[in-house]
Design brief:
Chain lengths: 119, 114
């Protein structure tokens, strides 16, 4: 089974702190994603990465950065945490797929989530 | 830009009755559609997907979904609801060209009443 793990289930930080959220997957997937989940807003994509050292902005990248130094690990960084970044953060991975590659797109595999509270 | 809408924040259904959770989508080309379920304090789990072919897709836990191209809908269904089906359900879409990016709906909370 694919396993996606996140470093913490619950995290409490203070405004202005630098926060690191870590995600590790064990299935050699090329794609990795960071989402935040908020009631009534669903899942919103923050950043994704399709290869080591490659990253693309999602829908809400402001206030966040990411790092992918190794294929299995994708880190989300809050440079200076703010209260409006209090949320559930979900990491996901999937194999890469392109329209001309044949086959069909695979699903995303999600970690258990990190509930971050910024005071 | 691709998008997906789940018009109902919550759906209540009695145990044993059929259930439907609605989803409509908008993409520029052929859609790839997914349903995920989230149980309390857990990550999202894949239920089923539509890529091409039969309009009725069968998935995990007895769920199925009906793809309707003319109505741009992909509603999730189950013939007989269980209390254990109570959870948060997300519809997601991925189009042919934005292939690495998946867009999720806002989620629908399903409450199955004993």
């Amino acid at each position: 089974d694919v396993k996606v793990t996140q470093s913490s289930r619950y995290l409490v930080k203070r405004t202005g702190e630098k926060v690191f959220l870590e995600c590790v997957q064990d299935m050699d997937h090329e794609n990795m994603f960071w989402y935040r989940q908020d009631p009534g807003l669903g899942l919103r994509l923050i950043y994704f990465s399709y290869d080591v050292k490659m990253k693309e902005k999602g829908d809400i990248p402001e206030g966040y950065s990411v790092s992918r130094e190794k294929k299995e690990r994708f880190s989300l960084i809050l440079e200076s945490a703010s209260t409006n970044q209090t949320s559930m953060y979900l990491c996901a991975s999937s194999p890469i797929w392109a329209p001309n590659s044949g086959g069909t797109p695979d699903t995303q595999y999600f970690g258990p989530g990190t509930r971050l509270t910024v005071l | 830009a691709q998008s997906v809408a789940q018009p109902e924040d919550q759906v209540n259904v009695a145990e044993g009755n059929p259930l439907t959770v609605k989803c409509t989508y908008s993409v520029s080309g052929n859609p790839y559609l997914f349903w995920y379920v989230q149980y309390p304090n857990r990550g999202l789990q894949f239920l089923l997907k539509y890529i091409t072919g039969d309009n009725l897709v069968k998935g995990s836990y007895g769920f199925e979904a009906e793809f309707n191209k003319s109505q741009t809908s992909f509603h999730l269904k189950k013939p007989s609801a269980l209390v254990s089906d109570s959870a948060l359900y997300f519809c997601a879409v991925r189009d042919f060209w934005g292939y690495q990016k998946v867009t999720f709906g806002t989620g629908t909370k399903l409450q199955v009443i004993p």
